[in-house]
Design goal:
The complex is a heterodimer of chains A (about 220) and B (about 240). With about 220 residues, chain A is mostly helical. Helices cover about 85% and strands about 0% of the residues of chain A. The two termini of chain A are about 25 Å apart. Chain B is mostly helical. Classes of the chains: A mainly alpha (about 220), B mainly alpha (about 240).
């Protein structure tokens, strides 16, 4: 546990010292959402139907963009190898790193998303659902993404490949999340979708750290 | 019995045994395809609703079945490669990927060709079509990850992990897509109610399914043999084999 805390603290401190890097994915999130009204139409009726999907796709892309930071810098300066040879369990350390990534890249989306949803005329009844789906979904994005980063961290140009590996795995989440927000906007119950997203979160929490640890061991072997 | 298995695990024995098996498989594949295609395209009666164009199912349905079957073989071989570090399982897993991707693409293309006269559109966002498309992306991900990593052994183990992650995801993707489509109450896909199939159509379909399996076995062995030769290029037995031919 102390190792978990140490890694978490270190990662958070590192991002805090380099704040602009932290802001970039959020700026990207805002910019992508701004593009849609400009590209499609400023009509509120059109934007209202698009809002759940647009917000979620933008969140997904923003998190994808920041994924590489989970392991990349550590791989380059060699501290990732130190984590691998340390006596502590690697999946736990991976969890700490993913948690740090989520706190930096996922949590701010929860705060920003309602503001942007207002810009897209999302009905106010759906706001709470939007935040809930992001709260349940963004950790899954980070967890699944970590596997992809673990597999591609040794490659010099892993960026495009990473999105090819990870995006198909994101699809179920995207379907349930935007479906839930959509249903909430039309006044329907969303318990079912939220329950499934919770189940996905638990599944990802329990399985992905092991897959990521195995991927890292292969990448650094 | 066990020694035979252990021997088969070594690339050299695999190469010779697979080489001996190949002609038989090739003949079997040819016969099955000949019988199945003739039966399906000529003998079987036309459908009372869809006419002659239903005959594409003799290619489409086996290809779709194989697209999932090959993924399972790939993931199974990948698991064996990761757990027991068997070289041959790595070879099999990675040889499966392009074959599976081709079957998936074939299923998609034949489905689209059939969809145009039947549904009036090449593509509808139907649950099955969508999950088949995602399956294709999963295959392409495995292939591109494998080709991106230089060291073949590292590459095949990385690809195996990705295949296993995909296996956990396939049912989730499939059901999410099914529910997504029902949730949306989409513009009702006019999927024809399939009448329970006539045996005169079912038998050629099953023959074609077996023919596809035999074809898969044949191509898999061919690819795996080639891959084995490439990986073992520095060993003596490969030098002997190459000099002989």
């Amino acid at each position: 546990m102390s190792a978990f805390n140490a890694v978490l603290k270190r990662d958070l401190l590192l991002t805090y010292r380099n704040r602009s890097e932290m802001a970039n994915p959020l700026l990207f999130f805002v910019l992508v959402i701004t593009l849609f009204p400009l590209a499609i139409s400023p009509e509120s009726s059109v934007l209202k139907t698009l809002a759940p999907g647009v917000v979620w796709v933008a969140a997904l892309l923003a998190s994808l963009l920041s994924l590489d930071t989970i392991f990349r810098t550590d791989f380059e300066d060699g501290s990732l190898e130190q984590l691998l040879v340390s006596p502590h369990s690697l999946p736990a350390l991976v969890m700490a790193k993913v948690l740090a990534h989520w706190l930096v890249a996922g949590l701010p989306l929860l705060v920003l998303a309602p503001l942007l949803a207002v810009l897209l005329y999302l009905p106010s009844e759906a706001m709470l659902t939007l935040v809930l789906t992001l709260a349940l979904g963004t950790p899954v994005l980070s967890l699944i993404g970590a596997i992809g980063v673990g597999l591609t961290v040794g490659l010099r140009k892993g960026g495009m490949l990473l999105s090819l590996l990870v995006l198909p795995l994101y699809i179920p989440l995207l379907i349930f999340a935007s479906g839930a927000v959509d249903a909430a906007a039309s006044g329907l119950a969303v318990n079912g979708q939220l329950a499934i997203m919770g189940a996905l979160l638990i599944l990802a929490l329990t399985l992905t750290p092991f897959a990521t640890a195995a991927a890292l061991r292969i990448s650094l072997s | 019995m066990w020694t035979f298995f252990h021997k088969l695990g070594s690339p050299r024995y695999f190469y010779t045994y697979a080489g001996r098996l190949l002609p038989w498989l090739a003949v079997l594949t040819l016969i099955l395809f000949g019988v199945g295609l003739y039966w399906g395209l000529v003998v079987a009666p036309a459908d009372y609703q869809q006419g002659e164009s239903y005959r594409i199912i003799f290619i489409h349905v086996p290809a779709a079945w194989m697209s999932m079957f090959v993924y399972m073989v790939m993931a199974g071989a990948g698991a064996i490669a990761l757990i027991w570090k068997m070289k041959l399982a790595e070879v099999v897993a990675i040889s499966c990927a392009p074959i599976g991707a081709s079957f998936t693409a074939l299923a998609l293309v034949t489905g689209m060709l059939w969809g145009k006269p039947m549904w009036g559109a090449y593509w509808v966002w139907d649950a099955r079509l969508t999950s088949e498309l995602i399956l294709l992306f999963l295959y392409l991900g495995v292939i591109s990850l494998y080709s991106a990593i230089e060291d073949t052994r590292t590459a095949s183990r990385a690809a195996a992990i990705l295949a296993l992650v995909g296996v956990v995801n396939i049912p989730i993707i499939h059901y999410s897509v099914v529910w997504w489509n029902t949730l949306h109450q989409g513009a009702t896909i006019t999927k024809l109610d399939q009448p329970s199939m006539d045996t005169r159509m079912l038998i050629p379909l099953l023959i074609m399914a077996v023919a596809f399996k035999a074809y898969f076995g044949m191509v898999l062995l061919m690819r795996a043999r080639c891959e084995v030769l490439e990986r073992e290029r520095n060993s003596n037995w490969v030098r002997e084999v190459v000099q002989l031919s």
